[in-house]
Design goal:
Number of domains: 2
Pfam families: EAL, GAF
Number of helices: 15
CATH superfamily of the largest domain: EAL domain
CATH class of the largest domain: Alpha Beta
Largest sheet: 8 strands, mixed, barrel
Protein name: EAL domain-containing protein
CATH architecture of the largest domain: Alpha-Beta Barrel
Radius of gyration: 30 Å
Structural class: alpha/beta
Helix content: 40-55%
Distance between the termini: 65 Å
Number of strands: 14
Strand content: 15-25%
Order of helices and strands: HHEEEHEHHEEHEEHHEHHEHEHEHHEHE
Strand order of the largest sheet: 7-8-9-10-11-12-13-14
InterPro entries: Cyclic-di-GMP_PDE-like, EAL_dom, EAL_sf, GAF, GAF-like_dom_sf
Organism: Massilia niabensis
Length: 395
Amino acid sequence: MMTEEALQRRPVASLNEIIHSAVNLARFCLGMDVAFVTEFKQGRRIFRHIASRNEQVPIKVGDSHPLEESYCQYIVNGSIPPVVDDSHIYPVLKALRATEAMEIRAHLGVPIRLSDGSVFGTFCCYSRKPSSTLRETDVTAMRRFAELISSVLEQRVMTERARETTSERVSNVIATHGMYIAYQPIVNLSTGMIAGFEALARFRAEPIRGPHEWFADAHSVSRGVELEVLAIGSAVYGIERIAPNAYLSLNVSPCTILSGALEALLAGAPLERLVLELTEHAPIEEYDALQAALASLRSAGLKLAIDDAGSGYASFRHILQLRPDIIKLDQSLIRDIDLDQGRRALALGLITFANETGCAIVAEGVENERELEVLKSLGVQAAQGYLLGRPAPLD
């Protein structure tokens, strides 16, 4: 017998075959003409699986009707019993358009419930002729089939529902502009003056979470570019309110760069005062394509930074392949650098590489004076962190 874990690993096509087999087996065993599985969604019942004695059936997969016009709603709320020997005996059923359109006389149906108790839809079968042979044992059999179908559907349905919920949340944030931009100062360690600001998105919407989670959710439902464009567009307005000798650093993912949206978004902006930060956590499949997408912007003065350097192998690949103007040392490398010889050695290696290749170094996440003193002694030119200034609106 196949375990639940094995079922979850089966491809969608195979799961559909299992469900269709169960639906057709129930139809055959009960001697019915048609059997089907429906899903309830946004006030409608949608036919997901259909098995019939022959191909002359008035419904097809994907058809949908308002729930209030279906047997399914009556089954779930208990208005009709699971077994209907003859639909014409029940005035409420005889009056339904589905009774005549689908030629329903005998009908048997049960809800399909997921493990959290929610109703997915119904498992039903019907005959074009009345029946006096359906019994409670048939209802029990249908419920067993419904449980099997539920177990097969469970993971896929929960994943789809989670995706829909995520998509709704992200769409709401985009539609209502449910974010604001905080600016964290980047300080020149030689002069103590502000060299620039990193623009950081902050979200007002529920659930209250960090920006990384919001952007990850947006990318998971193919809305990441839209959300990043919204954040970058909002952030760029702030450049007019910072000192003319300070730059503005903007976080961006490879897919947003490759989308081609940046050139139009940054048209008219002072590119020589802008820096694009690529995170180490963002996967890059085609470095050549990314370089080509950035070429005109960089030639016009825009600078490129590799974020989170030292937190993983990907950042080193980004640095070697993309030849950035700025390398940002990750806060995991900076934390307790005054106490950890290994962190100091790795930081010094990156600083030496930057000096050899003409890159600038910015240290992130500086939280105390001891860390700051070590960074100065290693030759770091600029830093940011709570010690030097927290993210905040420019006003």
